[in-house]
Amino acid sequence: MATTSKTAARAVAKSSSVNVGNKPTGKTGKMENSEFHEFFVDELKDIYWAEKHLVKALPKMKKAATSTELASAFEKHTEETNTHVETLEQVFALLEEKPQAKKCDAMEGLLKEADSIIEDTDAGTMVRDAGLILAAQKVEHYEIATYGTLIVFAQNMGHTQVSELLQATLDNEKATDLALTEVAESFINEQAAAE
């Protein structure tokens, strides 16, 4: 993990430094052979893994939900996540890279936490729904942070189309987070507190 952090720090430092050698700086070229570009593609592989595994986890969360509102939100989120996977495949194509998933330790941990919430709460309760919303929003916040950073990376490398595709996904992630908050605040949290 420390090696990855050092590589990331070097990549970010290089992206903001003066052009050295034949590598273009962030806003003047694609940087296909740069360490920063390689780091960017590696992070795309990470979020690709995350989205693909989230597609598998959301139906389980839907099944565990007590309220029909939350179950519907998870169903909608599953459809949107499938679109996110397809969008990432478009991004890889634009970058002339093979769509490849690299295990995302963060998402794996968040999805394990969601499983634990299901195991640790009683079926048919609003406490479980409140916990599922918590787990889902942790996932959303991770994705929001990741996509936000990837957009800035893409912009710095002049990948305008990639940036636009990632921005559409980021906007959707923010809308999903807001929708989950609305479901929680409409009645779930209040009823969970009364159980």
Task: Map the helices and strands.
Elements: H1 2-15, H2 35-64, H3 68-94, H4 105-120, H5 126-156, H6 160-194
Helix pairs in contact: 1-2, 2-3, 2-4, 2-5, 3-6, 4-5, 5-6
What does this structure look like?
This protein is mainly α and 195 residues long. The protein has one domain: Ferritin. The chain has 6 helices and no strands.
CATH homologous superfamily assignment? Ferritin, core subunit, four-helix bundle
Secondary structure tally, helices: 6
- Mind telling me which CATH architecture this is? Up-down Bundle
Strand residues, percent: under 5%
- Give me the Rg, rounded: 19 Å
CATH topology: Ferritin
What is the approximate shape? Answer: elongated
In quaternary terms, these chains amount to single chain
Distance between the termini: 42 Å
Which CATH first-tier class would you pick? Mainly Alpha
Low-confidence stretches: 1-29
- Overall residue-averaged pLDDT value: 87
How is the main sheet built? none
Give the H and E element order: HHHHHH
Count of separate structural domains: 1
Number of strands: 0
